[in-house]
Amino acid sequence: MRIKHLAxxxxxxxxxxxxxxTVPATEDSRSFVTLxxxxxxxILEIRYFSTYNFAxxxxxxxxxxTALLTREAALALKAVSDDVMAQGYRLKIYDAYRPQKAVxxxxxxxxxxxxxxxxxxxxxxxxxxxxxxxxxxMEKSGHTRGSTVxxxxxxxxxxxxxxxxGTFDWFGPESHPDFCGNPDTGQYTGDNHKSPAGRSIxxxxxxxxxxxxxxxxxxxxxxxxxxxWHFTLRNEPFPDTYFTFPVKQMKQ
Length: 252
Description:
Elements: E1 10-14, E2 20-24, E3 32-34, H1 35-38, E4 43-44, E5 68-70, H2 71-85, E6 89-95, H3 100-111, H4 119-122, E7 148-155, E8 160-161, E9 181-182, E10 187-188, H5 203-218, E11 221-224, E12 227-233
Parallel strand pairs: 4-6
Antiparallel strand pairs: 1-2, 3-5, 6-7, 7-8, 7-12, 9-10, 11-12
Helix pairs in contact: 2-5
């Protein structure tokens, strides 16, 4: 979970008249769209609006079970959706834009060491006290810049989520794209020596991860080396701006 902290940051925005002015990130969501308006075939399972997440509670800043992205990221994700639809899949979205107040909630949760109610589901091999040290929880997140998305594939034939061999937000090496294979070549190796509990994934599960990865890379996203589900638009429009407005349906 790549998360970092920043209070209210100012964004330099270009206006139609060609001038620029500083706008507090909390106040400006005009460059964002509701993801499903741009990608109508996407399925939403917004984990941080629910209690089924590593914190076991609804996360601050998620007012509605929807997903937001910058227009640029949403346009690129539409191309991904069209790509995987042609292969028999739909995109399933776990998270997209994440407000800074949500990041701050994660940081508070990680500091509350006794709260381990979701440990069996998301970090059974780790003591909660190491989450900061091992950078599963940090104080700033690329999601807060608005062009990062966490997602998986949904199989239209079986009408089930595709088996990726691990759950979203699993804290461990089993989530790494190179777990049991080489993501650059797409070759399955079965190498699971980094798993503290000796877990593994099958060739089919690794191949499923690669279907998603290749489609995302084809359409302008870059991967993260610790999470198979996490991708950021390579040419993101706000590389230095951390927004704080809440997640709710955007007005048309």
